[in-house]
Amino acid sequence: MAKFELKFLDCFGHFNTIQCNYLNKCDEEFDEHWIGITLTTNNGKHSVSLDKSSAIKFAKTLRTEINKITESEGQNG
Known about the structure:
It is built from one helix and four strands. The protein is α+β, with helices and mostly antiparallel strands.
């Protein structure tokens, strides 16, 4: 398996990054796998863990916001 790390840089050049990882473990209470999202800033690291259904909802919400930008660009063009 390839060893690499994918980080996304913020658009303002402040060296803030966001990274997403599959957490290969199950929670004993909920018996679910998790996706970890880590935001790294000059103030440290901030993390959130999402279960599968929450991650899917987040991805759909992110796609909706991207579509709003795309529509706005089309109206301004």
